[in-house]
Write a structure and sequence with these properties.
It is a single chain. The protein is α+β, with helices and mostly antiparallel strands. The chain has one domain (5-157): Thiol Ester Dehydrase, Chain A. The chain is 32% helix and 34% strand. It has helices spanning 5-13, 16-19, 54-61, 64-75, 107-119, 153-157; strands at residues 23-28, 34-39, 80-91, 99-104, 122-132, 138-150. A three-stranded antiparallel β-sheet has the order 1-2-4. Strands 3-6-5 form a three-stranded antiparallel β-sheet. A hairpin with a 5-residue loop joins strand 5 and strand 6 (138-150). The two termini are 26 Å apart.
């Protein structure tokens, strides 16, 4: 579904799995080339050690690369599906404050994905996400493997 950055931002803000974990989309960049996300610490997402629950942090990082890539290619006229194929998370410090991260997708990454979608039909690549606390320290590093499939690729080959 083709949506604007504004509608997508507000939809993700109030999407229940994110909203109730206090995950807040601050901004989606023009052309879906990036996103800024906050993870607010609250009674709903604190663990036994009074830090942000690891599942909340993982939930915050999981959907955004596939969402951005999907919207980039849908706006270009592609019929694609996108999801996180796999991910790895490394907890470096406890999330004792609000956490935040930014994702940026470069023109080169989009061109590479487009080339792969047009020549092989599916794009699979790992993308890193560093999540910071309010002091600017990296608390969590995540690698998210994105899977995109060009649903029209087989039709073009036949």
């Amino acid at each position: 579904m083709v949506v604007s950055e504004r509608i997508s931002k507000w939809g993700m803000r109030f999407y229940p799995p994110l909203f109730f974990q206090r995950i807040w989309v601050v901004k989606i960049n023009k052309g879906f080339r990036g996103i800024t996300v906050n993870i607010n610490r609250s009674i709903f997402n604190r663990n036994y050690n009074n830090s942000i629950f690891g599942g909340t942090i993982f939930s915050a990082a999981d959907p955004f690369y596939p969402l951005l890539f999907h919207q980039i290619f849908v706006h270009k006229g592609y019929n694609v599906i996108a999801w996180s194929k796999s991910a790895e998370i490394l907890f470096l410090k406890p999330g004792l404050t609000k956490l935040h991260f930014k994702i940026n997708i470069s023109d080169e990454e989009v061109a590479e994905a487009e080339h792969v979608l047009n020549t092989g039909g599916k794009y699979i690549k790992t993308h890193p996400i560093d999540i910071y606390n309010t002091n600017g320290e990296v608390c969590v590093t995540i690698t998210n493997e994105v899977y995109l499939r060009n649903l029209n690729f087989l039709e073009a080959v036949l």
